[in-house]
Design a protein that fits this description.
By secondary structure, this protein is mostly helical. It has helices at about 25-40, 50-55, 60-65, 70-90, 100-115, 120-125, 135-145, 145-155, 165-185, 195-200.
Length: about 220
């Protein structure tokens, strides 16, 4: 309408939103989910971006809109999973409890998360030490768990875990937790899930009270 020819009429009605098409945040999550499935089953090098976009149900151009290259994609996937783990574990922490109980709750929180997210656990086991993950991304992920490292040091000072080098626990704790998850998933031990968890965590936490007693998650 040309200016000066009376008042403008009401704006035309908006076209209804199209259904069945993913919104922007959903597309990003679809791409990350597809990358998770493919990286854990096919490997990083055997997974081209075209395969990821096809698996995610988006165009390759859409994938590159969110992730400029495959290295950025795996970095973002790694960091998002590590943040998810850190959030799940920290949510179960209770600063009012003794250090040993707090640490036990944190381990159990990770195991609960791991049972519900086997694909993400597998991804972390495959790529935790991989050169495919950028060093800055690894440092950023490590910062997410700085509070837990401080809690572990407090546990050493208070005798909740043995006074061994940090490098020892950096290797052994993830291995023990991964072993617990593998045994739970296998169903071949003849032990209940709780027995597996208690026996496994008993390899990390020093005994207190009854032999083998491990702080259980409550609430």
């Amino acid at each position: 309408m040309t200016a000066g020819r009376g008042k403008a009429g009401p704006p035309p009605p908006r076209a209804p939103a199209r259904r069945g098409r993913a919104r922007a945040p959903e597309k990003r999550e679809q791409i990350l989910g597809a990358a998770l499935r493919l990286f854990t089953t096919r490997g990083f090098h055997q997974t081209p971006t075209a395969r990821i976009s096809r698996e995610a149900g988006v165009s390759t151009g859409t994938l590159f809109h969110y992730f400029p290259d495959k290295n950025t994609l795996i970095d973002e996937l790694y960091l998002s999973i590590q943040r998810e783990v850190a959030g799940a574990v920290r949510k179960r922490d209770d600063a009012s409890l003794p250090v040993r109980d707090r640490l036990g709750r944190c381990f159990r929180a990770y195991l609960t998360w791991g049972v519900s997210n086997p694909g993400k656990v597998r991804f972390l086991s495959l790529f935790y030490n991989s050169p495919r993950i950028g060093e800055e991304v690894k440092k950023e992920a490590h910062r997410e768990f700085q509070w837990l490292e401080e809690l572990s040091l407090a546990a050493v000072r208070e005798g909740a875990i043995r006074d061994l080098p940090r490098e020892f626990y950096a290797v052994m704790i993830p291995q023990v937790l991964q072993g617990i998850l593998l045994l739970i998933a296998s169903g071949e031990t003849g032990m209940s899930e709780e027995e597996i968890v208690e026996s496994g965590l008993g390899m990390i936490l020093k005994e207190e009270g009854r032999p083998g007693e491990i702080p259980r998650s409550s609430g």
